[in-house]
Design brief:
The protein is mainly alpha-helical and about 160 residues long. It has helices at about 1-45, 50-75, 80-110, 110-115, 120-135, 145-160. This is Colicin V production protein.
């Protein structure tokens, strides 16, 4: 099972790098920024009844993506496509590694530790150790759905 997860990580990183290369840094950055800005705008909107918050989300995302389109035209005008594509691949890999190490792999290996006696895979252990050394904020992060299961399991163990 650990070999399968390692293969999944390698294939997914290659796929994400290719997608980042195709999109470029400007599109990738503004797409991620549009998601965060739209969530922030929808959460700050005071009238969340009905579809109002959804419209605020869509409009905020649309404005950020339009701004990204203008910036993309400037990048293409100055013939920076190779730099844009290379940085896009790096940004895609960086975002995917952060998501994979903190959410995807812990979810996949959740029951693996008890069944096989190991805590993660070879690639996951190395990437996770390096990331936690460089970014200690992620070290104690537990996704909310896993945190609830941890609390339920500890509560169950305390009872027995």
């Amino acid at each position: 099972m650990t070999l399968l997860i390692d293969v999944f990580l390698i294939v997914s990183v290659i796929l994400v790098a290719w997608l980042g290369w195709q999109a470029g840094f400007t599109r990738s950055f503004f797409a991620a920024l549009a998601g965060f800005a739209a969530m922030l705008a929808a959460n700050m909107y005071p009238y969340k009844e009905g579809v109002n918050a959804y419209f605020v989300f869509l409009i905020a995302a649309l404005f950020v993506i339009l701004a990204g389109g203008f910036i993309l035209r400037l990048v293409q005008f100055f013939y920076m496509n190779l730099v844009d594509k290379t940085c896009g691949a790096a940004l895609g890999v960086l975002i995917w590694v952060i998501v994979a190490v903190n959410v995807v792999v812990p979810t996949l290996t959740q029951n693996l530790a008890s069944s096989e006696g190991s805590q993660g895979t070879l690639i996951y252990k190395n990437i996770s150790a390096g990331m936690h050394k460089k970014l200690p904020e992620f070290k104690n992060y537990i996704p909310p759905f896993l945190e609830l299961e941890d609390k339920a399991a500890s509560l169950h163990n305390d009872r027995w």
